[in-house]
Design a protein that fits this description.
The protein is α+β, with helices and mostly antiparallel strands. It is built from 21 helices and 22 strands. The chain folds into four domains: 287 residues, FAD/NAD(P)-binding domain; 102 residues, Elongation Factor Tu (Ef-tu), domain 3 (Beta Barrel), CATH 2.40.30.260; 96 residues, Orthogonal Bundle (Arc Repressor Mutant, subunit A); 52 residues, GidA associated domain, C-terminal subdomain (DNA polymerase, domain 1).
Length: 622
């Protein structure tokens, strides 16, 4: 039934597992994907959307490296929006609304077209471990399947417990059983585990809603896409809609608070702070009489609708009664109620930067097992775990992204250095170099890295190099070309920008706050250059960002270079911090537990002060 030994076994077929299996196989490793239900590969367990604030940047990074999430998102999109366009480009974040069934179908087909991926439907109930080395996995049917490395991507399935009011059901997702055995074995091996909670809203029948009283939320007039490959932007889009809760809705929900597992002690674990349940919002923001609800279609043709903003674990009759008091939902019919789910996770400080566990060699964790929330966070970890599992098998150097290289680097460094006690979600504010880590330049940053790994094709690399060359040449054109006052002053006065009295370089004028590419294109010299070079829209956008934010970009590069100096000051493995009596007690404990690989990582550990870093530097001869 199986190969005698696989290079990589991936447990779980969600976003993390799918990316891990694709990456490992595309790098030449024999890969087995073990999942409880092959029909649910790439399932969107919660909202039918990809991307969003900072998450969209992650999807672009996955795509630039050669992962599949961006391509699958484009092929299944029903709407595209670039969020935060009113802010600076570091904040721009792409987001798609997706057809849930199409998304899963495209993921399944993409994996089936990946030659070195084998599939097996069964529950992984344990690990085959010998000493401190992984040897394979054990399944509920009594199989022991051998592997050189194993990637665990169990999502919310490890001892999953679903809550709807006072009812509790064992399960990893509605209608699917929980996974047992793995947590208990890992704890017996010395791993620390914890519990986390997440939730999901009710799904309703779109035919029972009155959209005429809601606010339409259309996609962008000129939609873009995630992938840097040849996927096509949407030619048509589906609208989402917005409505609001009210004081009456809140009062109806409060009637069930005594039966809410959030408030009666049934749920002790922490949920995602930035995606609270509706009852949590009412409790935490008692002064607010209403909250936004986004009504999101689940696909092109289905009538099923996702009620974004109404995540809840209240009794189903309370959910139904309250939702019927929302504008446009007066006659709503439920497909299924919302619920909360508790599940096991393993604090990620037990991992290295490659996502390999410190206790068991060859064992990698990715996704919600590490305490994160979100498809995009999970997919990026799966990609990195799959890459590093494959590299380990091939006896090659590991692959780690730094904080100034990618949001993925920020995510993993945050997890293993600081840990998390609540579901971790990525935000632009978590990245200190976000001006460098924009969604528009992910290909510049990462496609060469993906190509070196064998994930990004030659065609991808050539496309990126052409775009980079065109952008650089266009920026240099602005540096070298002058404009006379009579050619530009009219446009400057139209945006309340001071006129020029003598010829000046276009670069300096373009750098002004209110001057846009459209103003530049009104100049014959610029429009002629663009036409002559056949520059696409993304090159125009790239050049505009590089001109307008040149100072900020240069400053961040300098700051990143300073940090890199500390990255090069390595700390020996298994360093004995107890002999450094000048370190604070807290620093000794934290450093001993996390075992940072260099001074830069040590400086980011909570509880390690600048004076502690000075002590380390002195001891290391720096």
């Amino acid at each position: 039934m199986f190969l005698e030994e696989y290079d990589v076994i991936v447990v779980g077929g969600g976003h993390a597992g799918a990316e891990a299996a694709a990456a490992a196989a595309n790098m030449g490793s024999t890969t087995l994907l073990v999942t409880m239900n092959l029909q649910n590969i790439g399932q969107m367990s919660c909202n039918p959307a990809m991307g969003g604030i900072a998450k969209g940047q992650i999807v672009r990074e996955i795509d630039a490296l050669g992962g599949y999430s961006g391509i699958v998102s484009d092929l299944s999109a029903i709407q595209f929006k670039m969020l935060n366009k009113s802010k600076g480009p570091a904040m721009w974040s792409p987001r798609t609304q997706n057809d849930r069934m199409l998304f899963a179908e495209h993921w399944r087909l993409a994996l089936e077209k990946t030659p070195l991926v084998d599939f097996y439907q069964d529950m992984a109930t344990g690990l085959h471990v010998k000493g401190d080395r992984i040897m394979g996995v054990k399944t509920s049917l009594g199989m022991t399947i051998k592997a050189k490395t194993v990637v665990l991507t169990n999502g919310t399935f490890l001892n999953g417990l679903i809550h709807i009011g006072e009812k509790q059901l064992g399960g990893g997702r509605a209608g699917e059983k929980a996974a047992t055995g793995i947590t208990e074995q890992l704890v017996s091996l010395g791993f620390e585990s914890g519990r986390m909670k997440t939730g999901t809203p009710p799904r309703v029948d779109g035919r029972s809603l009155d959209y005429s009283v809601m606010i339409p939320q259309p996609g962008d007039p000129i939609p873009e896409k995630f992938s840097y490959t040849q996927t096509q932007p949407l030619a048509k889009q589906r609208d989402c809609h917005m409505t609001h809760t009210s004081a009456q809705v809140h009062d109806l929900l409060r009637e069930g608070f005594d039966r809410s597992p959030m408030f009666n002690g049934a749920i002790q674990s922490l949920g995602p702070r930035y995606c609270p349940s509706i009852e949590d919002k009412i409790n935490r923001f008692a002064d607010k009489d209403s909250h936004q609800l986004f009504v999101e279609p689940e696909g092109w043709n289905t009538v099923e609708v996702y009620v974004n903003g109404f995540s809840t674990s209240l009794p189903e009759e309370v959910q139904f009664k309250a939702l019927r008091s929302v504008k446009g939902f007066e006659n709503v019919k439920f497909f299924r109620p919302g619920y909360a789910i508790e599940y096991d996770y393993f604090p990620p400080t037990q991992l290295t930067h490659t996502l390999e566990t410190k206790l068991v060699k060859g064992l990698f964790f990715a996704g919600q097992i590490n305490g994160t929330t979100g498809y995009e966070e999970a997919a990026s970890q799966g990609l990195m775990a799959g890459i590093n599992a494959s590299l380990q098998v091939q006896e090659k150097d590991s692959f780690v992204l730094q904080r100034d290289e990618a949001y993925i680097g920020v995510l993993i460094d945050d997890l293993i250095t600081k840990g998390t006690e609540e579901p971790y979600r990525m935000f632009t504010s978590r990245a200190e170099y976000r001006t460098l880590l924009r969604q528009d330049n992910a290909d510049f940053r990462l496609t060469p890295r993906g190509h070196a790994l064998g994930l990004a094709s030659d065609e991808r690399l050539k496309t990126m190099q052409k775009k980079a060359a065109q952008s650089e040449a266009f920026v240099n054109f602005f540096r070298d070309t002058s404009v006379r006052p009579e050619q530009i002053n009219e446009q400057l006065s139209s945006v309340d920008s001071a006129p020029i009295s003598q010829p000046g370089k276009l670069f300096k004028i373009f750098s002004r706050p209110n001057v846009t590419m459209d103003h530049m294109l009104s100049l014959d010299a610029v429009s002629s250059y663009v036409a002559q070079e056949s520059l696409p829209r993304e090159v125009l956008e790239q050049a505009e960002i590089q001109v307008k934010y040149a100072g900020y970009i240069e400053k961040e590069k300098n700051n990143a270079d300073k940090l890199q100096r500390l990255e090069h000051v390595k700390i020996p493995a298994n360093f004995d911090y107890s002999k450094l009596k000048s370190l604070s007690y807290e620093a000794r404990e934290k450093l001993k537990n996390i075992q940072p690989v260099n001074i830069a990582q040590a400086s980011r550990i909570s509880g390690v002060s600048p004076s502690d870093i000075s002590v380390l530097l002195v001891f290391l001869g720096r």
